[in-house]
From TrEMBL:
Coiled-coil ranges (or none): none
Superkingdom of the source species: Bacteria
Protein's name in the database: Family 1 glycosylhydrolase
Xref: InterPro entries: GH (IPR017853), Glyco_hydro_1 (IPR001360), Glycosyl_Hydrolase_39 (IPR051923)
PANTHER family assigned: ALPHA-L-IDURONIDASE, BETA-XYLOSIDASE-LIKE PROTEIN-RELATED
Organism: Massilia soli
Transmembrane portions of the chain: none
């Protein structure tokens, strides 16, 4: 039996962006936040808070050097220290980018090559059993191929469909490859839980499409047969019938936990012309219940942080209390929710610009600041874990077969 998972994460995004002068730049959040130099200290902070689970991934762009070629030096050190400290990792193998030699998410070779990397990782670290092979597949495809912000920087439906099918296929093949090595593995698929609200009746057609699109990556991952209009959209934008049946015919559901990420920016008011602005209306409970009712899988709250930019230190504590109340309500209403995550351990950099602007602006989202000084939300999270761990573990839920 697996105890309720109180977790945090170390932000490890690494997309490639295009700067105003046309040059290409690799964003590396681990570099920007000083983690490469201070990783031992950061792992110590996890233990200091009484947290035993860490969402963490090796830098894919630095580790996978080419087909069958890997540099494990940094990864060996960090995961060895995690094991020594008794920290259980949820291993995030691909977080918004690929190595330069792989190009971007339009590359049809990416899924197979990534699965080989995932298998090599599992063979090197057979004691690890929790994985997120590809983080936030919808966000990765949306920002890279539909909104033109990262990597291939496309703004087209065909680019989005191609990125989505490659990301999901990579996730499925990696899941199967890891399972071959470690049959006890479980896969916590961290995904952004979105919702689009129509500002007026004329916007309903737009929001209906967007509210189906938000499910697309998970629909393909879990073999959920999409609606007729979404099938037409896929066929019109480059997916073949054979490719679609690859997703229907694969079945990784039995080893999956649905991870729902929720921020105040996950809900959107939409106008008939497609323009939109961020709002917070339904909240984590309502939106997660929609996802749960669709897939009927165990749930984990895999990401959240401050409502605003954290300039008011009360924001983080209030948001933590609000998210935790939603988790408890879901649990009490019979949703099998198995964990909660404040993301991330330390402050982040440039997420207020969606990582598309290399401004060096510190975002006050962490349990600790970049000087590794604890924030009030860090103290509150430590107290929450201490106070609630016995209660939520009174009815333990199993993550094993």
């Amino acid at each position: 039996m697996q105890p309720f998972l109180f977790a945090t994460g170390i932000e490890n995004s690494y997309p490639v962006i295009t700067l105003p002068d046309g040059s290409r730049h690799r964003v590396d959040e681990m570099e920007k936040t000083g983690h490469y130099a201070r990783w031992r200290e950061d792992l110590g902070l996890v233990k200091e808070l009484g947290i035993e689970v860490l969402r963490y991934g090796p830098p894919y762009h630095r580790t996978h050097l080419g087909p069958g070629r890997y540099d494990w030096e940094f990864t060996d050190q960090v995961f060895g220290e995690m094991r020594r400290l008794g920290i259980e990792p949820i291993v995030d193998l691909c977080h918004f980018g690929v190595p330069d030699w792989l190009g971007n998410f339009q590359n049809p070779d990416f899924p197979m090559l990534f699965a080989e990397y995932a298998k090599a990782f599992a063979e090197r670290f057979p004691w690890i059993t929790l994985y997120t092979p590809v983080n936030e597949m919808f966000v990765a495809a949306n920002f890279s191929a539909r909104r033109g912000l990262w990597n291939e920087c496309l703004s087209s439906d065909s680019g989005f469909v191609t990125a989505t099918k490659h990301l999901v296929k990579a996730n499925i093949l990696a899941t199967e490859a890891i399972e071959q090595v470690q049959p006890d593995s479980r896969f916590i698929q961290s995904e952004s839980s979105e919702y689009f609200h129509a500002a007026e009746p004329a916007a309903t057609h737009v929001t209906d499409h967007l509210n189906e699109l938000r499910f697309l990556a998970l629909d393909l991952n879990y073999g959920y047969d999409v609606c007729g209009t979404m099938y037409e959209y896929l066929m019109d934008n480059g997916m073949t019938r054979e490719e679609y049946h690859f997703f229907l015919d694969r079945n990784v559901r039995a080893v999956c936990i649905m991870g729902n990420d929720y921020y105040a920016t996950n809900e959107h008011i939409v106008y008939p012309d497609g323009s939109m602005f961020v709002c917070e209306m339904f909240g984590y409970y309502v939106i997660t219940k929609q996802y749960y009712d669709r897939y009927r899988l165990p749930v984990m709250h895999t990401e959240t942080n401050n409502r605003a930019d954290g300039r008011n230190e009360k924001d983080g504590r209030l948001w933590l209390e609000q998210q935790w109340a939603n988790v408890l309500r879901l649990k009490n209403d019979g949703v099998p929710i198995i964990g909660f995550t404040w993301y991330s351990l330390i402050d982040q950099v440039d997420w207020d610009g969606l990582l598309a602007v290399n401004a060096g602006h510190v975002n006050h989202y962490g349990l600790f600041d970049l000087e590794r000084r604890i924030r009030p939300v860090g103290e509150a999270y430590r107290e929450l874990i201490k106070t609630w761990s016995g209660q939520v573990n009174s009815g333990l839920m199993c993550l094993r077969k």
